[in-house]
Design goal:
Mean pLDDT: 97
GO molecular function: threonine synthase activity
Strand content: 5-15%
Organism: Roseomonas nitratireducens
Oligomer: single chain
Keywords: Amino-acid biosynthesis, Lyase, Pyridoxal phosphate
Catalytic activity: O-phospho-L-homoserine + H2O = L-threonine + phosphate
Protein name: Threonine synthase
Bound molecules: pyridoxal-5'-phosphate, ligand LJ64HWYM
Distance between the termini: 38 Å
Length: 465
C-alpha cells in the first residue's frame, strides 16, 4: 500500500514514512493510492472478533502489516475502562451511542493515539531516529497525544491550545503532565490559529527538517486509519454487512466522520453520514447550499468543535473531485486566500447524496443533554449531544436503519454544561480525582510563528542536552 498527497506534488510513500511525515511536503494530506475493500463474506467473517483483533486486521489492510499489530492493538486497548473497548448503548428504538471515551483521557482521541504512540515507538526504534511532534488542540487531541507520548525516549512533544477556550478539565489534563519530553503552549488565538501555526511549521522546510517534525493531529493519515475500526465494530454488531446502518458524528476537523466514510469506502453498507456542528456551522452551510465560507470561530459549549477550517475536508474534496490533485490544490489555495472554497456543483451534489449537515446552538445542546437524561437515563457530553440531536433530525426515512452516534467524550470532561442541563455533576474517575489540585505547567505565547518555533526549538534542545 502506497500513499499519495491530495496536492499531487510529492512522490508516493509507504505507511511508516506517512506516519512520520504527518503533513505532505506540498501542504497536502496523504491518502491511500487505492482504497482497500472487503467482500461481504470477508466482513461477515470479522463479526464477533474482540476489538483489538478487529483493529489489527483492518490496519493490516493499510500497509501497516509489517508492524506487530496484534501486540500493539492489544496493548493500546488493554487499559480501557470497558471490556468491550467501544460499547454500543441503545438510546431509543434506533439510535445507538458508540462510546469512544473509555480510554485514559476520556475522549475518542485515545482510540487512535494509544495506537500511534506505540507505532511511533516501533518505527523510530527500527530506524534509530527521533522526532519532535507538534500538535494543535481544541481540547482533546492534546491530552490524548500527551498521554500516548509522555516519557517516550525518541519523542519530544509540543501541544498548542487556544488560551482560555478549552474546558478546565481539558486544560488540566494537558498542563499537569510533568514528563520532561512534554511542553504545552497556550496561544493567544482560537483553534484555527493553533492549527495554522502547526501547518506553517510543517511548511517551513528548514525548520521541519531541523526539528524532524511529526504530527499527531488528524492531518496524519495514521490517525484516520486507526479511527476506522470502531465504525466497523459498531456496524457489524448491528447486522452489517447484511443490514444498512447510518452514522452521525459531532464534527470539527472532519477526521472522525472521514473515518466513517472510509469504512463505507471499504465496503460497509453505511447509507448516510450525518455531520453535526455547533454554531461554527461551516460544514452544515456547505452541505445545505454549497457555501463553504469561513467566519470567525465562536466559543460554544462543545469547545472541541469550535473550528472553521476542517483539515480533513481536503481528503473528501480530493475524492469528490475525482482525485484531481491540481484541482484540489487550487480549491484549497483559494479557500485560504479568499475565505471561500469553490466546489464544483457536481462534486457538491455527490457529497450531499451521502452526507447531511445539522447545526445546534448552545441552548439546543443543553436541551438535548436534558432530554437524553430524562428519556433514556443517559448522561451525554455536549459534543455527543450534538451528534444525537443530528441523528434524530436526519435519520434515514427507513426506520429499520439504525443510527450509530459517535459518543466522543465522557460527560465528566464538561461538568459545567452537563450540570446546567441535568442538575447532575458527573465525577471524574478516581484516578483523576485530584486533577484540580495538581500543579500546572505551560507557556503563553502570541499567535506568532517565530515565537512558537523558538519555543519548540528550545524544548527539543533542552531534552537533547
Ligand atoms: C469530544 C469531541 N467531539 C468531536 C470532535 C470533532 O471531531 P473531528 O475533529 O474528528 O471532526 C472533537 C475534536 O476533534 C472532540 O474532541
Ligand atoms: N477537536 C480536536 C481538534 C483537533 O482535531 P484532530 O482530530 O485533527 O486532532 C481536539 O480536541 O483537539
Amino acid at each position: 500500500m502506497r500513499y499519495v498527497s491530495t496536492r499531487g506534488q510529492v512522490p508516493a510513500r509507504d505507511f511508516d514514512s506517512v506516519l512520520l511525515a504527518g503533513l505532505a511536503e506540498d501542504g497536502g494530506l496523504f491518502v491511500p493510492e487505492a482504497w482497500p475493500s472487503l467482500s461481504t463474506a470477508e466482513w461477515r467473517a470479522l463479526r464477533g472478533l474482540p476489538y483489538p483483533a478487529l483493529a489489527a486486521r483492518l490496519l493490516g489492510l493499510f500497509g501497516a502489516g509489517h508492524l506487530p499489530l496484534d501486540r500493539i492493538c492489544a496493548e493500546a486497548y488493554a487499559g480501557f475502562g470497558h471490556p468491550a473497548t467501544v460499547p454500543l448503548v441503545q438510546l431509543d428504538t434506533r439510535v445507538f451511542a458508540l462510546e469512544l471515551f473509555h480510554g485514559p483521557t476520556l475522549a475518542f482521541k485515545d482510540m487512535a493515539l494509544q495506537l500511534l504512540g506505540r507505532m511511533f515507538d516501533h518505527v523510530l526504534a527500527a530506524r534509530g531516529e527521533r522526532v519532535t511532534i507538534v500538535g494543535a488542540t481544541s481540547g482533546d487531541t492534546g491530552s490524548a497525544a500527551i498521554e500516548a507520548c509522555r516519557d517516550r525516549a525518541a519523542i519530544d512533544i509540543v501541544i498548542l491550545h487556544p488560551r482560555g477556550r478549552t474546558s478546565e478539565v481539558q486544560r488540566r489534563q494537558m498542563t499537569t503532565v510533568m514528563a520532561p519530553n512534554v511542553a504545552n503552549i497556550a496561544v493567544e488565538g482560537d483553534f484555527d490559529a493553533c492549527q495554522d501555526l502547526v501547518k506553517a511549521m510543517f511548511n517551513d522546510a528548514p525548520f521541519r527538517q531541523e526539528m524532524r517534525l511529526s504530527a499527531v493531529n488528524s492531518i496524519n493519515w495514521a490517525r484516520i486509519a486507526a479511527q476506522i475500526p470502531y465504525y466497523a465494530a459498531a456496524a457489524l454488531a448491528l447486522g452489517a454487512p447484511d443490514r444498512e446502518v447510518a452514522v452521525s458524528v459531532p464534527t470539527g476537523n472532519f477526521g472522525n466522520v472521514l473515518a466513517a466514510w472510509a469504512a463505507r469506502r471499504m465496503g460497509l453498507p453505511i447509507s448516510r453520514l450525518i455531520v453535526g456542528s455547533n454554531r461554527n456551522d461551516i460544514l452544515t452551510r456547505f452541505l445545505a447550499a454549497n457555501d463553504m465560507s469561513m467566519r470567525a470561530v465562536e466559543p460554544s459549549l462543545s469547545p472541541s468543535m469550535d473550528i472553521q477550517v476542517s483539515s480533513n475536508f481536503e481528503r473528501l474534496l480530493f475524492e469528490m473531485l475525482g482525485r484531481d490533485a491540481a484541482a484540489t490544490r487550487e480549491a484549497m489555495q483559494r479557500f485560504r486566500a479568499e475565505g471561500r472554497m469553490p466546489v464544483p456543483d457536481a462534486a457538491w451534489r455527490e457529497a450531499t447524496s451521502l452526507f447531511r449537515g445539522f447545526a445546534l446552538d448552545d441552548e439546543g445542546t443543553l436541551a438535548e443533554i436534558g432530554r437524553l437524561h430524562r428519556e433514556a437515563g443517559y448522561l451525554a457530553d455536549p459534543h455527543t449531544a450534538v451528534g444525537t440531536a443530528a441523528a434524530r433530525a436526519l435519520a434515514p426515512e427507513d426506520p429499520a436503519i439504525p443510527v450509530i452516534v459517535a459518543a466522543t467524550a465522557h460527560p465528566a470532561k464538561f461538568p459545567d454544561a452537563v450540570e446546567r442541563a441535568t442538575g447532575l455533576r458527573p465525577p471524574l474517575p478516581a484516578r483523576m480525582a485530584d486533577l484540580y489540585e495538581r500543579q500546572e505547567r505551560y507557556g503563553v505565547l502570541p499567535n506568532d510563528l517565530a515565537a512558537i518555533e523558538a519555543a519548540v526549538r528550545a524544548h527539543a534542545l533542552r531534552n537533547a542536552a
